[in-house]
């Protein structure tokens, strides 16, 4: 007897899935914002002259980039209560995403800042620009332009990684799908359908990022 | 609260064995199919080219966890009875082939066009042009990114734990549930992954620096 595919159960519970997809996007946006914050602050400590700031930052980046997100999220999930911090799974998931994404963001942003030639900054100062003007027009904007492709593809990776947050039962697309699966036993249909939802989310993000890049970086380079 | 003794550590090492095996199978199988994906992406045949692009877009645009789920339950639907590890290994192979295919496409396209033209002028046919002229140079350029992906793959095998496959992370969850020492266990698990991945990362980074220097 062959198995008959039945996507009816998915269709019935589509509203539930779409709501969960919004939560996935929410997790991703929160994770991206905090990761960028950690990235900017981390570049300051990573390039600091004080080894007391620099070495812990390097260690943080290396440890996070060379261990799986699943282990990180479990560690944070069990570590926080030991320090008396009790957070719900969603808040824990956001912290884990921010820490993970932050480590990658530090390296990406550092690459961008280092790509600005010293001569450019000196030329700006020689032309009589203020330090703030030099930072804004000569360091920040070109650096942002240089890192934009790798930073945004890292953001998309982070969005896809939110699915792992199901392991601590955070409310997002995959955990809701797992619940529907255990109600209906239609494993393949459920996971195939939410794979398409993830594909749509990452596709939309890619389109959005490329539209923003056209808007911001359409000025000529030379 | 139970302590973490020799038995628990041995159990973790059993899990580590599967983590390494999954990563190795995924990398080898992914390398083989990935070469096909890369060649389809640089071919002039429109259908092949589009199929390769779609394949990469799907695998890079969906979570690895979903790929595991879909392949795992999809194989079950086909009516073939395979071990869990085979289903998981197939999923990692497909995943790796898309990412390696995209990395190597970049490598192939960064080899100057004159090389292909010279090969053609010398009368080399497609296979020998690729095998003897283009691919050796392309692989050298893409080696740092390839190693970088291997690190991603080793870390990615941890998601097999969510499907219920007992590799290092799942072994860690089991030991953690038995001993009630989650922090200690996950610190050990993290340290093992780090010991596996960090040398690879350093190797990749040093190779990237060397390549950057020789390019100048």
Automatic annotation (TrEMBL), chain A:
This is ABC transporter membrane spanning protein (Amino acid). Its main location: membrane. The chain crosses the membrane at residues 20-45, 66-85, 146-171, 191-217. One of its GO terms (biological process) is amino acid transport. It comes from Mesorhizobium amorphae CCNWGS0123. Belongs to the binding-protein-dependent transport system permease family. HisMQ subfamily. It is found in: Cell inner membrane; Cell membrane. Keywords: Cell membrane, Membrane, Transmembrane, Transmembrane helix, Transport. It comes from the Bacteria. InterPro entries: AA_ABC_transptr_permease_3TM, ArtM/GltK/GlnP/TcyL/YhdX-like, MetI-like, MetI-like_sf. Residues 21-209 form the ABC transmembrane type-1 domain. One of its GO terms (cellular component) is ATP-binding cassette (ABC) transporter complex. GO terms for molecular function: transmembrane transporter activity. It is a multi-pass membrane protein. It holds the Pfam family BPD_transp_1.
Automatic annotation (TrEMBL), chain B:
It is a multi-pass membrane protein. Keywords: Cell membrane, Membrane, Transmembrane, Transmembrane helix, Transport. Residues 16-204 form the ABC transmembrane type-1 domain. It comes from the Bacteria. SUPFAM superfamilies: MetI-like. PROSITE patterns: ABC_TM1 (PS50928). The chain crosses the membrane at residues 20-40, 52-72, 84-104, 138-163, 183-206. Its main location: membrane. One of its GO terms (biological process) is amino acid transport. The keyword Magnesium does not apply. GO terms for cellular component: ATP-binding cassette (ABC) transporter complex. GO terms for molecular function: transmembrane transporter activity. It is found in: Cell inner membrane; Cell membrane. The keyword Zinc does not apply. NCBIfam families: HEQRo_perm_3TM. PANTHER family: BLR6398 PROTEIN, MEMBRANE COMPONENT OF AMINO ACID ABC TRANSPORTER. Belongs to the binding-protein-dependent transport system permease family. HisMQ subfamily. This is ABC transporter, membrane spanning protein (Amino acid). It comes from Mesorhizobium amorphae CCNWGS0123. The lineage of its organism: Bacteria, Pseudomonadati, Pseudomonadota, Alphaproteobacteria, Hyphomicrobiales.
């Amino acid at each position: 007897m062959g198995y008959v595919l039945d996507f009816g159960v998915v269709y019935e519970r589509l509203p539930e899935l779409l709501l969960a997809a919004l939560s996935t996007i929410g997790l991703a946006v929160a994770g991206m914002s905090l990761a960028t914050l950690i990235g900017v602050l981390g570049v300051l400590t990573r390039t600091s002259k004080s080894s007391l700031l620099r070495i812990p930052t390097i260690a943080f980046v290396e440890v996070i980039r060379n261990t799986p997100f699943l282990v990180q999220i479990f560690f944070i999930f069990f570590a926080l209560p030991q320090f008396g911090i009790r957070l719900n799974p969603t808040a824990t998931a956001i912290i884990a995403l921010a820490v993970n994404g932050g480590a990658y963001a530090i390296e990406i942003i550092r690459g961008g800042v280092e790509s600005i030639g010293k001569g450019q900054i000196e030329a700006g100062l020689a032309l009589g620009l203020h330090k703030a003007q030099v930072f804004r027009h000569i360091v920040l904007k070109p650096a942002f332009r240089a890192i934009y492709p790798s930073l945004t593809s890292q953001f998309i990776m982070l969005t896809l990684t939110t699915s792992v947050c199901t392991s601590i039962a955070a409310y997002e697309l995959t955990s809701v799908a797992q619940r529907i699966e255990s109600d209906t036993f239609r494993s393949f249909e459920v996971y195939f359908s939410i794979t398409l939802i993830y594909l749509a989310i990452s596709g939309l993000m890619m389109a959005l990022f490329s539209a923003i890049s056209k808007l911001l970086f359409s000025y000529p380079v030379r | 609260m139970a302590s973490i003794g020799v038995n628990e550590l041995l159990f973790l090492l059993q899990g580590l064995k599967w983590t390494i095996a999954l990563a190795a199978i995924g990398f080898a199988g992914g390398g083989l199919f990935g070469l096909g994906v890369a060649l389809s992406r640089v071919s002039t045949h429109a259908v092949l080219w589009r199929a390769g692009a779609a394949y990469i877009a799907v695998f890079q645009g969906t979570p690895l966890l979903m790929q595991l789920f879909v392949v795992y339950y999809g194989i079950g639907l086909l009516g073939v009875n395979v071990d869990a590890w085979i289903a998981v290994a197939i999923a990692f192979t497909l995943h790796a082939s898309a990412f390696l295919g995209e990395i190597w496409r970049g490598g192939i396209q960064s080899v100057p066009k004159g090389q292909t033209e010279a090969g053609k002028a010398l009368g080399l046919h497609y296979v020998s042009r690729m095998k003897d002229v283009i691919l050796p140079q392309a692989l050298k350029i893409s080696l740092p990114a390839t190693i970088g992906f291997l690190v991603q793959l080793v870390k990615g095998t941890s998601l097999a734990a969510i499907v219920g496959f007992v590799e290092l992370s799942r072994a860690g969850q089991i030991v953690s549930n038995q001993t009630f020492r989650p922090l200690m266990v996950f610190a050990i698990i993290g340290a093992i992954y780090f010991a596996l991945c960090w040398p690879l990362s350093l190797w990749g980074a040093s190779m990237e620096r060397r390549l950057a220097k020789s390019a100048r």
